[in-house]
Amino acid sequence: MAAAGVLLRALRRLCRVLLFLSQFYILSGGGSFSVEPSQPLAQSDKDPGPTRTFTVVPRAAESTDIPPYMMKCPSNGLCSRLPADCIECKTNFSCVYGKPVTFDCTVKPSVTCVDQDFKSRKSFVLNMTCRFCWQLPETDYECSSSTSCMAVSCPRQRYTANCTVRDHVHCLGNRTFPKMLYCNWTGGYKWSTALALRGNGRTQKK
Q1: Strand-strand pairing, 77-78 and 123-129
Q2: How far apart are CA 186 and CA 44, in angstroms?
Q3: β-pairing verdict for 158-165 and 141-143
């Protein structure tokens, strides 16, 4: 009985020691589930901290528009044969009418041309005759026609036409100008034909 009592007391002491150790382990945090690591994450959700802003600078739009005059300008042709709309010349009105004259010219942007040796040029010398555009021969310009000439008259009637110099012709002054022209068409007939028909009609009446 004495031995049993000693064993019982020893078991009680052992239980106390194990209970103490278990409580100490729990209080020290070794046996509990800690939620502290999740707290900084929750805090980061509430306070995102300083933010960075990025400004997107739009790229300048590249112009792809073709100048209207380019439709008349041949590529890599002779500079001296370029239409007047393709070049810019330093002209002056001090030349003598009807005499040959030379002017310094440059091609407009996007226009390419070559000289007699097929070398690319941006500037060249233009040879032409000293005269204003309205002094050109009738074959060097085109004029508008009139639809209001409906009667044959003698002397012949005139009308104000708007005339434009042909592209390949070079001259001084405005390339578009007004000019008084004879009314050449009457009732669908040329003036000379209409006049002849009118004369025949008078003859038949007699």
Answers
A1: unpaired
A2: 94
A3: antiparallel
Pairing of strands 176-182, 87-89: unpaired
Measured distance CA(180)–CA(142) in Å, rounded: 13
Long-range contacts of 92-100 (CB under 8 A, 24+ apart): 93/172, 95/130, 96/130, 97/130, 97/131, 97/135, 98/129, 98/130, 98/131, 99/129, 99/130, 100/127, 100/128, 100/129, 100/130
pLDDT of residue 184: 72
Whether 95 contacts 131, CB under 8 Å: no
> Across-strand partners of 128?
101
3-class DSSP state of 163: strand
Q: What is the mean pLDDT of each run of 10 residues along the chain (206 residues)?
A: 68 73 63 48 53 57 73 89 93 91 94 92 94 95 82 74 94 95 65 56 50
Report the C-alpha gap between 92 and 176 in whole angstroms. 18
Predicted TM-score (pTM) above 0.85: no
